[in-house]
Write a structure and sequence with these properties.
By secondary structure, the protein is mainly β. It has one domain: Porin (Beta Barrel), CATH 2.40.160. It contains two helices and nine strands. The chain has helices at residues 2-21, 25-29, and strands at residues 31-42, 50-52, 54-64, 70-87, 90-108, 115-132, 140-153, 157-164, 172-182. The chain has an eight-stranded antiparallel β-barrel. The termini are far apart. The relative contact order is 0.21.
């Protein structure tokens, strides 16, 4: 799973750089890349384990349609639904990790303003893997839907609250802070 994460991050970054260097200046000026990190919790019960706070990280590339409030793009999101199970031989932490990738659409309520609330949704596929002290193996893949709301400050810093729905045991709710690069032609 770690090598998949590194490969996808490299792919996203190199694709963005190749667009920037190949003469698509107009396209790139309306494109933004967001790196986000934060926290998440499991959203649903999974065999009675207690919820543990874990990390969430993501990468979003979006295209902005000029003065329109709409953005479309692609995303990669890593979530970790961690639960603690108590057994006779001690406590076990099982981490149900999801690596989701897909397309995203967002609507900005105050385009290019200092404070810009937004809503968005991402739809794609997710690969799931149970790691740590695995008590209930449940690896596989599923469709992933990630609705989110948030606020963007100064066209550069974004706070998101989201839910990631994929399959039982892997669904999460999270809070992330993102840093946006690009899409500064309007300033």
């Amino acid at each position: 799973m770690k090598s998949l994460k590194l490969f996808l991050a490299f792919l996203f970054t190199s694709t963005s750089m190749s667009f920037a260097q190949s003469g698509f200046a107009k396209f790139v000026s309306k494109t933004e890349l967001e790196f986000s990190d934060g926290i998440c919790l499991p959203l649903d019960d999974f065999h009675g384990g207690s919820f543990k706070l874990r990390y969430a990280t993501g990468l979003n590339a979006r295209y902005h349609f000029g003065d329109s409030p709409w953005k479309i793009g692609a995303y990669i999101q890593f979530d970790n639904a961690c639960r603690k199970y108590r057994w006779d031989d001690g406590a076990h932490l099982q981490k149900n990790e999801t690596c989701a990738a897909g397309v995203t659409a967002e609507y900005d309520f105050r385009v290019y303003k200092t404070v810009n609330p937004f809503i968005g949704i991402g739809v794609g596929g997710g690969a799931q893997e149970a790691t740590g002290k695995v008590v209930y193996p449940h690896d596989g893949g599923a469709v992933s839907v990630i609705p989110r709301i948030g606020v963007e400050f100064w066209n550069s810093i974004r706070m998101n609250v989201y839910t990631q729905f994929s399959r039982k045991g892997y669904n999460t709710v999270g809070l992330t802070v993102g840093f946006v690069l690009g899409n500064k032609s309007q300033l």
